Amino acid sequence: MGLKSLWDAHVVPRMIKCACASPAIAELRAGIVPLAQGQVFEIGCGGGLNQQFYDPARVTAFAGIDPSARLLDYARDAAARKGWQADIREGIGEDIPFAANSFDTAVCTYTLCSVADPAKVLSELRRILKPGGTLLFLEHGLSPEAGVARWQRRIEPVWKPLMGGCHLSRPVTAPVVAAGFEVDAPSHTYMDGMPKWAAWMEWGAAIKPG
Ligand SMILES: C[S@@+](CC[C@H](N)C(=O)[O-])C[C@H]1O[C@@H](n2cnc3c(N)ncnc32)[C@H](O)[C@@H]1O
């Protein structure tokens, strides 16, 4: 195994779990993940950090996919601690292994930054949602400030290979809308305590038209 493969297999999962577990990010998760209801699908569920925020009284079934074997272990552990049945599989968002129109809610947090093809992933999320179903998203991405965006583009080529393919400069809400979802009043903020180039967050509920 080469250095890059060792880094990706052993270091990146630990860094992701650590970086994504900050109390400030947990606060944002707590505002969006508990809205999930019915049959729920989570893309990039590795790490399992959202498990604690699902409301078991609202969720009738849970399924999730992630390509990282190490992060899937964390997710399965978190689901076991929660004490519920969770169908957690290895897979990629560009080819979601579930039938069309089968979920009420899809959850996507801090994952569109890392996928190979965000447009394909969003079209897959739209496919698996029932008409009227909801995509709950929470992502970091392209700052609306030109100066910050410039720094995001400068830093990205160094950041991306170190951080498991994470992009700093991807727009968040615009591609969700472009994929055919209806997004009403998305929210955004710069997170405190982070450099601005890593701190721009957008989140919201996107509806698949019925
Ligand atoms: C920054 S981590 C976020 C993990 C988790 N979603 C969270 O909110 O803590 C990015 C996640 O995206 C996953 N990922 C990368 N490429 C993916 C793809 N093509 N399809 C689905 N998940 C992917 C990674 O394995 C990793 O679990």
Question: How would you summarize this macromolecular structure in one to three sentences?
Answer:
This protein has helices spanning 3-19, 23-32, 69-82, 118-128, 146-162, 173-178, 196-199, and strands at residues 38-43, 59-66, 87-90, 103-109, 129-140, 182-183, 187-190, 200-207. It is an alpha/beta fold and 210 residues long.
Please tell me about this protein's structure.
The chain contains seven helices and eight strands; from the N terminus they run ααββαββαβααββαβ. The protein has 210 residues and is of the alpha/beta class. Strands 1, 2, 3, 4, 5, 6, 7 and 8 form an eight-stranded mixed sheet that branches. The chain is globular, with a radius of gyration of 16 Å. The chain binds S-adenosylmethionine. S-adenosylmethionine (SAM) binds next to loops.
Layout: helices, strands, pairs:
Layout: H1 3-19, H2 23-32, E1 38-43, E2 59-66, H3 69-82, E3 87-90, E4 103-109, H4 118-128, E5 129-140, H5 146-162, H6 173-178, E6 182-183, E7 187-190, H7 196-199, E8 200-207
Parallel strand pairs: 1-2, 1-4, 2-3, 4-5
Antiparallel strand pairs: 5-8, 6-8, 7-8
The chain binds S-adenosylmethionine.
Residues 16, 20, 43-44, 46-47, 49-50, 66-68, 71, 92-94, 109-111, 114-116, 166 line the site of S-adenosylmethionine.
Using the coordinates shown, work out and report the CATH topology: Rossmann fold
Structural category:
alpha/beta
Q: Supply the CATH architecture.
A: 3-Layer(aba) Sandwich
How would a textbook summarize the main sheet?
8 strands, mixed
What order do the helices and strands follow? HHEEHEEHEHHEEHE
Distance between the first and last residues' Cα: 48 Å
Point out poorly predicted stretches: none
Q: Rough shape?
A: globular
Small ligands present = S-adenosylmethionine
